[in-house]
């Protein structure tokens, strides 16, 4: 390990990792390496000691059953996660984990899963699944492309910023045009695909936040994202 090592932690890869969400971890790891950093990659699964020295956390989607399996452990580590989020540790929470980063998720079957309240959002299981390609406009990241598949309907509390505004697709609830949620350096979204390979601006925001927090500055040369650009164009042009 060099002294330029970034500790990347994947939350609940065993239970919360669908529709290619592992690609987010891989993208962060590869981009960090290309920027000249070594990456220590850890998994946090239920029961594991929580890696409090994490520089960057990423977690994916799951079935309701996966959310039930991680929920107790998530409550256990919630105080640390909340403190880290407030301290500027970057985090990416996709779909099922996004829902659990809010106040609660009431499933379609009527059970309530408490969240950890990093985000001022509440989710209820809806009657239909919201499935398909999605394109949104984010004030920070420009056009963001991906794929969504959820029945949860998420509503933002007052003052909670979304990640962006939906141009094609459903997003948080299919009604108010919002998608995802943003606070500190936490990015939460319904986008699979996976999200980061096709959205390098989001990946680099997370990387920059992690590196600046750990080492003070991030001054790496920009990467060649020609292929990602082409993938973005193809993805954005796909029918819903
Ligand atoms: N079970 C949740 C829903 O359907 C999350 C789905 C997911 O993570 N893809 O809303």
UniProtKB/TrEMBL annotation:
<feature type="active site" description="Nucleophile">
    <location>
        <position position="95"/>
    </location>
</feature>
<dbReference type="GO" id="GO:0004359">
    <property type="term" value="F:glutaminase activity"/>
</dbReference>
<keyword id="KW-0436">Ligase</keyword>
<keyword id="KW-0133">Cell shape</keyword>
<feature type="domain" description="CobB/CobQ-like glutamine amidotransferase">
    <location>
        <begin position="11"/>
        <end position="199"/>
    </location>
</feature>
<dbReference type="InterPro" id="IPR033949">
    <property type="entry name" value="CobQ_GATase1"/>
</dbReference>
<comment type="function">
    <text>The lipid II isoglutaminyl synthase complex catalyzes the formation of alpha-D-isoglutamine in the cell wall lipid II stem peptide. The GatD subunit catalyzes the hydrolysis of glutamine to glutamate and ammonia. The resulting ammonia molecule is channeled to the active site of MurT.</text>
</comment>
<dbReference type="GO" id="GO:0016740">
    <property type="term" value="F:transferase activity"/>
</dbReference>
<dbReference type="InterPro" id="IPR029062">
    <property type="entry name" value="Class_I_gatase-like"/>
</dbReference>
<dbReference type="Pfam" id="PF07685">
    <property type="entry name" value="GATase_3"/>
</dbReference>
<feature type="active site">
    <location>
        <position position="192"/>
    </location>
</feature>
<dbReference type="GO" id="GO:0071555">
    <property type="term" value="P:cell wall organization"/>
</dbReference>
<dbReference type="GO" id="GO:0140282">
    <property type="term" value="F:carbon-nitrogen ligase activity on lipid II"/>
</dbReference>
<dbReference type="InterPro" id="IPR043702">
    <property type="entry name" value="Lipid_II_synth_GatD"/>
</dbReference>
<protein>
    <recommendedName>
        <fullName>Lipid II isoglutaminyl synthase (glutamine-hydrolyzing) subunit GatD</fullName>
        <ecNumber>6.3.5.13</ecNumber>
        <ecNumber>3.5.1.2</ecNumber>
    </recommendedName>
</protein>
<dbReference type="GO" id="GO:0009252">
    <property type="term" value="P:peptidoglycan biosynthetic process"/>
</dbReference>
<feature type="binding site">
    <location>
        <position position="129"/>
    </location>
    <ligand>
        <name>substrate</name>
    </ligand>
</feature>
<dbReference type="InterPro" id="IPR011698">
    <property type="entry name" value="GATase_3"/>
</dbReference>
<comment type="subunit">
    <text>Forms a heterodimer with MurT.</text>
</comment>
<comment type="similarity">
    <text>Belongs to the CobB/CobQ family. GatD subfamily.</text>
</comment>
<keyword id="KW-0315">Glutamine amidotransferase</keyword>
<keyword id="KW-0961">Cell wall biogenesis/degradation</keyword>
<keyword id="KW-0378">Hydrolase</keyword>
<keyword id="KW-0808">Transferase</keyword>
<keyword id="KW-0573">Peptidoglycan synthesis</keyword>
<dbReference type="GO" id="GO:0008360">
    <property type="term" value="P:regulation of cell shape"/>
</dbReference>
<comment type="pathway">
    <text>Cell wall biogenesis; peptidoglycan biosynthesis.</text>
</comment>
<feature type="region of interest" description="Disordered">
    <location>
        <begin position="158"/>
        <end position="179"/>
    </location>
</feature>
<dbReference type="GO" id="GO:0009236">
    <property type="term" value="P:cobalamin biosynthetic process"/>
</dbReference>
């Amino acid at each position: 390990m060099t002294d330029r090592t970034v500790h990347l932690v994947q939350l609940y890869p065993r239970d919360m990792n669908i529709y290619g969400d592992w690609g987010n971890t891989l993208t962060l790891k590869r981009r960090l390496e290309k920027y000249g950093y070594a990456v220590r990659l850890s998994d946090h699964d239920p029961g594991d000691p929580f890696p409090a020295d994490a520089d960057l956390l990423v977690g994916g989607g799951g079935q309701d059953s996966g959310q039930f399996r991680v929920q107790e452990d998530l409550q256990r580590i919630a105080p640390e996660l909340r403190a880290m989020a407030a301290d500027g540790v970057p985090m990416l929470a996709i779909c099922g984990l996004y829902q659990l980063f809010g106040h609660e998720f009431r499933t379609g079957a009527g059970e309530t899963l408490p969240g950890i309240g990093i985000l001022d959002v509440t989710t209820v299981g809806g009657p239909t699944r919201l499935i398909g390609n999605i394109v949104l406009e984010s004030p920070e990241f420009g056009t963001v492309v991906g794929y969504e598949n959820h029945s949860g309907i998420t509503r933002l509390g007052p003052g909670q910023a979304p990640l962006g505004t939906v141009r094609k697709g459903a997003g948080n609830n299919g009604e108010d045009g919002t998608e995802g949620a943003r606070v500190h350096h936490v990015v939460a979204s319904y986008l699979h695909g996976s999200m980061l390979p096709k959205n390098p601006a989001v990946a680099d925001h997370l990387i920059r936040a992690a590196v600046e927090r750990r080492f003070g500055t991030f001054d790496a040369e920009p990467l060649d994202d020609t292929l990602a650009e082409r993938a973005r164009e193809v993805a954005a042009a796909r029918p819903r």
